[in-house]
Design the sequence.
């Protein structure tokens, strides 16, 4: 293993930052305390520029190497927001805010990038410029898009951008990555069914939206089973079905909601089109109103070929050849780093979190043993992409 010694020596300090952030989780764009800490630390480390308020509550730090003007500009990104989940870990540093917790490890991502920033500010063993990007609202608020829309890439001349996410179930000293689609496009659908309410004992006088909703659920499953090419991937999950208030009443309306995950634009288009056709057909078949609202969310997270190869090589430098999977299967989760990869070439990598609860689980905790690994990856990435002359 080639963990950087200086970084390994900072592990406890970085873990303390991480636990403090864990104890004080904040949602979406409301990451005021966290962004404040990030800003304060980046200034204390000696960043050449620290700019808050990018994409509402995002923070950007600029670290110039020895010959800043002669080299490249590389962006490194971490996310800062937590989730609306009640923590059950019972840890001494568990969330102090009921109903909110860092259940996706963004506390760890923020702390690791801060650790790398401290190291890079101290050593400056590179030419060019490292831009450290701390974004809000990864969990459904498109904070990454907000930062890109705020002109971050152009303002600092970012040429390539890299992201990292912890991966429970994978040993802490391992990385996984792949070129092309790494995470899915994540869309939301809402279906509103209006039939005709009636007495439960007189169904012939009504038009039952529950029956229509059940048939719709079955029909929607046929999209993945019978329309999508079996070698492609897609998920259509109906996750909410609300109807009725009384045992002896057929309700007037039903509301359904769910998510669609796809790995390519053509499959995404296909699923959306088929959903509309099925809802229209279902409405005609039952002579009812079936209204579909399809909202496109995060796009596919597509890793660029050259940057993925480069990132995998950096990972190998840190943890050795055998501990890097450079052809991992994609995950159908969504990730708004996708917007940054649409703006600039780059790559998103998974870092092992060990044998912990999964992300978004109330018993999840980021593994502090991953800190020296993640920080070393960031530091080596900058030093290798922009070597000091
Ligand atoms: Ni996450």
Sequence:
């Amino acid at each position: 293993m080639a963990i950087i010694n200086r970084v390994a020596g900072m592990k406890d300090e970085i873990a303390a930052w991480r636990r403090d952030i864990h104890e004080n989780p904040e949602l979406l764009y409301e990451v005021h305390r966290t962004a404040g800490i990030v800003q304060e630390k980046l200034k204390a480390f000696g960043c050449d520029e620290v700019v808050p308020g990018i994409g509402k509550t995002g923070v950007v730090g600029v670290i110039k190497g020895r010959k800043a003007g002669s080299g490249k500009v590389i962006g490194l990104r971490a996310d800062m927001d937590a989730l609306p989940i009640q923590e059950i870990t019972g840890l001494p540093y568990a969330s102090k805010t009921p109903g909110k917790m860092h259940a996706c490890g963004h506390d760890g991502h923020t702390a690791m990038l801060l650790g790398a920033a401290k190291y890079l500010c101290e050593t400056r063993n590179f030419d060019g410029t490292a831009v450290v990007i701390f974004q809000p609202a990864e969990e459904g608020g498109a904070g990454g898009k907000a930062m890109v829309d705020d002109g971050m890439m152009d303002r600092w001349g970012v040429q390539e951008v890299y992201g990292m996410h912890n991966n429970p179930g994978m040993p802490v000293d391992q990385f996984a990555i792949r070129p092309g689609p790494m995470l899915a496009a994540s869309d939301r659908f809402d279906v509103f069914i209006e039939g005709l309410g009636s007495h439960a004992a007189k169904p012939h006088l009504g038009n039952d939206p529950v029956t229509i909703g059940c048939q719709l659920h079955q029909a929607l499953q046929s999209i993945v089973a019978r329309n999508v090419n079996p070698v492609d991937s897609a998920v259509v999950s109906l996750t909410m079905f609300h109807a009725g208030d009384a045992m002896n009443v057929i309700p007037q309306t039903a509301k359904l909601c769910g998510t669609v995950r796809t790995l390519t634009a053509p499959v995404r288009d296909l699923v959306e089109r088929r959903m509309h056709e099925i809802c229209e057909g279902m409405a005609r078949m039952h002579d009812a109103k079936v209204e579909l609202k399809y909202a496109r969310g995060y796009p596919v997270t597509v890793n660029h070929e050259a940057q993925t190869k480069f990132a995998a090589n950096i990972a190998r430098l840190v943890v050795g050849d055998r501990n890097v999977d450079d052809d991992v299967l994609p995950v159908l989760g969504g990730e708004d780093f996708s917007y940054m990869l649409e703006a600039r070439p780059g790559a998103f990598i998974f870092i092992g979190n060990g044998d912990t609860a999964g992300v978004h689980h109330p018993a999840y905790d980021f593994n502090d043993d991953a800190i020296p690994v993640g920080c070393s990856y960031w530091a080596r990435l900058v030093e290798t992409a922009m070597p000091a002359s």
Q: What stands out?
A: The domain at 5-183+300-385 is CATH 3.40.630.10 (Aminopeptidase).
